[in-house]
Automatic annotation (TrEMBL):
GO biological process: proton transmembrane transport
Domain Cation/H+ exchanger transmembrane: residue ranges: 2-244
Upper taxonomic lineage: unclassified sequences, metagenomes, ecological metagenomes
MF terms in GO: antiporter activity
The keyword Transmembrane is annotated on this UniProt entry: yes
Membrane topology: Multi-pass membrane protein
Subcellular locations according to the entry: Cell membrane
InterPro entries (UniProt xref): Cation/H_exchanger_TM, Na+/solute_symporter_sf
Major localisation: membrane
Source organism: marine metagenome
Pfam family of the protein (one): Na_H_Exchanger
Protein's recorded name: Cation/H+ exchanger transmembrane domain-containing protein
Length: 256
């Protein structure tokens, strides 16, 4: 939250006091990328408590960043003059319906997938259904990324979801992705991340000194805030090297 406020406040005063773009920048920079945090944490010699803290924090901030940033983006596209107007008329309904579409899609696909697996060469069908779910949600006026996100969360935690909720959507149970399917998703993610960072590097332009200065300033402010916050919040029993890792592992990745 403090990262969002610091980023938004800095952008607001340095970008012509335009509130909407400033809040959008704050929402985007408030996330911590699990795609970067998880591999780093696995390689470091940290306690399980510290590892869990970093992974859970990155997962929560990433999801919230996506939801808030997409909501603000839809504010621009829908022509609303203020964020409060958009929140009151559209954002809450959009998020709620996207959650329903994502959960319903997960239940439907879980039921269908159990039968599809009986046929050969069907490993890409889940990806195809995800694209269909994304397109359906967007065509209905909801958020495709949020719907797909909930789809993945539901199927990844199918055993933890109460059956009475699942049964309301007309299914007896939910199934999980197999290890082969998870490996496929992992390879696809690796491919997307690789091309994303290539595209990101090609998009960086150093012609505007003001933007470069703003980026450096935000970087120093975010890390400074993180250092102070870490000292105030974490337990005094935490080892110095682990406290340092908690302070500096705040990468901005695919969500940003």
């Amino acid at each position: 939250i403090l990262t969002v406020l610091i980023s938004a406040g800095t952008a607001y005063y340095l970008m012509g006091r335009d509130l909407m773009p400033a809040i959008f920048i704050g929402a985007v920079l408030g996330s911590i990328s699990p795609a970067v945090v998880v591999p780093i944490v696995r390689m470091l010699d940290l306690s399980e408590n510290t590892k869990s803290t970093l992974v859970v924090e990155s997962a929560i901030t990433d999801v919230l960043s996506i939801i808030i940033a997409l909501g603000i983006l839809k504010t621009f596209l829908s022509g609303h003059k203020s964020i409060m107007e958009f929140i009151g008329t559209n954002l809450i309904a959009t998020i709620a319906m996207s959650l329903v579409v994502g959960f319903g899609g997960a239940v439907i696909w879980s039921t269908i997938l159990e039968k599809i697996r009986k046929f050969p060469n069907t490993i890409f069908t889940s990806l195809a259904f995800i694209f269909l779910l994304y397109g359906l949600s967007e065509n209905l006026g909801y958020s495709g990324p949020i719907a797909v996100l909930i789809f993945g969360v539901v199927l990844a935690n199918s055993k933890k979801i109460p059956l009475n909720i699942v049964q309301k959507f007309g299914a007896d149970h939910l199934i999980e992705f197999t290890s082969i399917e998870k490996t496929l998703f992992s390879e696809v993610i690796f491919l997307v991340k690789t091309f994303f960072f290539i595209f990101l590097g090609m998009s960086i332009q150093f012609g505007n000194v003001k933007i470069l200065f703003l980026g450096l300033l935000l970087t120093f402010l975010i890390y400074g805030n993180r250092l102070i916050l870490t000292r105030l919040i974490i337990s005094k029993n935490t080892l110095n090297n682990e406290a340092a890792m908690i302070s500096f592992i705040i990468p901005k990745g695919l969500a940003a």
